[in-house]
């Protein structure tokens, strides 16, 4: 969770996107935001939230990839090392505070929404077009204009959450090992 972190949440009838400052502690940024939220909320994090089953139960032979990573052709949580460890630690903290935490994969959801046809993550000038499609899907408006692809990914993670609540979310992986939602 190095670099910039973005959070998308519903505030009133509009979506609010908050962006951390560069080099700000992302975990603390998320914890501070969540601590002001209503109790028991669902959180969709764009980071690996589990390890290959080999580390969990000793079963299996793959030390690098979870079933979900293979299915999605995603990076290994082991390659992402520190990010994965911090995300799992954050997940444990959030769950201890009565929040449900699920792993989101905005890049895969972007494919579901055909955003690659709109140059998803290609040029900053395309952020308005891409975010307009997502907002139309959600039937919601934003409080402020998006400026970064981190903010777009937070918006997509919110869309994944809505799909999950409506029973339309797609998943990859094995529940025992960890699912990726998209």
Radius of gyration, CA atoms, in whole angstroms: 16 Å
Task: Classify the helix fraction into a percent range.
Answer: 40-55%
Major sheet: size, sense and barrel closure?
3 strands, mixed
**Structural class category:** alpha/beta
The overall number of domains is 1
Query: How many alpha or pi helices?
Result: 7
Contiguous runs where pLDDT drops below 50 for at least 5 residues: none
Backbone shape: globular
- Give the SSE string: EEHEHHHEHHEHEE
**Beta-strand proportion:** 15-25%
Count of beta strands: 7
Distance between the termini: 19 Å
Mean pLDDT: 94
Order of adjacent strands in the largest pleated sheet: 1-2-5
Write structural notes for this entry:
The protein is of the alpha/beta class and 182 residues long. It has one domain (6-47, 94-181). 40% of the residues lie in helices and 16% in strands. It has 7 helices and 7 strands, in the order E-E-H-E-H-H-H-E-H-H-E-H-E-E. The strands form 3 sheets. Strands 1-2-5 form a 3-stranded mixed beta sheet. The protein has a two-stranded parallel ribbon with strand order 3-4. A two-stranded antiparallel sheet has the order 6-7. A hairpin with a 3-residue loop joins strand 6 (171-174) and strand 7 (178-181). The model has no long low-confidence stretch (mean pLDDT 94).
């Amino acid at each position: 969770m190095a670099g910039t972190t973005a959070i998308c949440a519903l505030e009133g009838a509009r979506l609010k996107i908050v962006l951390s400052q560069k080099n700000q502690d992302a975990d603390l940024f998320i914890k501070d935001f969540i601590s002001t939220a209503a109790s028991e909320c669902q959180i969709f994090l764009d980071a690996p939230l589990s390890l290959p089953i080999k580390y969990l139960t000793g079963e299996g032979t793959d030390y690098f990839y979870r079933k979900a990573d293979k299915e999605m052709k995603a990076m290994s949580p082991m390659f992402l090392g520190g990010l994965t460890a911090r995300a799992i630690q954050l997940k444990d903290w959030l769950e201890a505070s009565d929040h449900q935490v699920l792993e989101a994969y905005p890049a895969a959801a972007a494919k579901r929404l055909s955003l690659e046809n709109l140059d998803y993550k290609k040029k900053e000038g395309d952020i308005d077009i891409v975010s307009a499609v997502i907002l139309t899907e959600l039937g919601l408006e934003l409080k402020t204009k998006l400026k970064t692809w981190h903010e777009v990914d937070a918006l997509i993670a919110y869309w994944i959450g809505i799909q999950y609540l409506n029973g339309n979310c797609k998943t990859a992986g094995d529940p025992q090992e960890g699912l990726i939602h998209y």
